[in-house]
Amino acid sequence: MAEELRQQGFEVEDLDCQSLCPHAPAIRVGDRFIHRATLEQVAERAEGQVTADSV
Questions:
Q1: What is the DSSP letter of 23?
Q2: What is the tens place of the pLDDT at every residue in 1-55?
Q3: How far apart (Å, rounded) are the C-alpha atoms in residues 50 and 38?
Q4: Looking at CB atoms within 10 Å, which of 19, 20, 49, 55 has the fewest?
């Protein structure tokens, strides 16, 4: 999933599970985690984050 996100132009940092292994894949966008994340959820959240940060 990390490689696919990179190919879509997202900046991705690989980290340890941070005790979220049972909820994998857990992806942090901004200061929020998405548990059992899908590519679509991450893209939606990231786009919302950019919009919210831009205001």
A1: G
A2: 899 989 988 888 888 888 889 999 999 888 888 999 999 999 889 888 755 544 3
A3: 18
A4: 55
Residue 50 confidence (pLDDT): 56
What count of residues does the chain have? 55
Greatest alpha-carbon pair distance for the chain in Å reads 35
Q: Three-state DSSP class for 27?
A: strand
Contacts for 1-9: CB closer than 8 Å, 24+ residues apart:
1/25, 1/27, 1/37, 1/39, 1/42, 4/39, 5/39, 5/42, 8/39, 8/43
Torsional sign, CA 37, 4, 7, 39: negative
What is the DSSP track for 28-45?
Answer: EETTEEETT--HHHHHHH
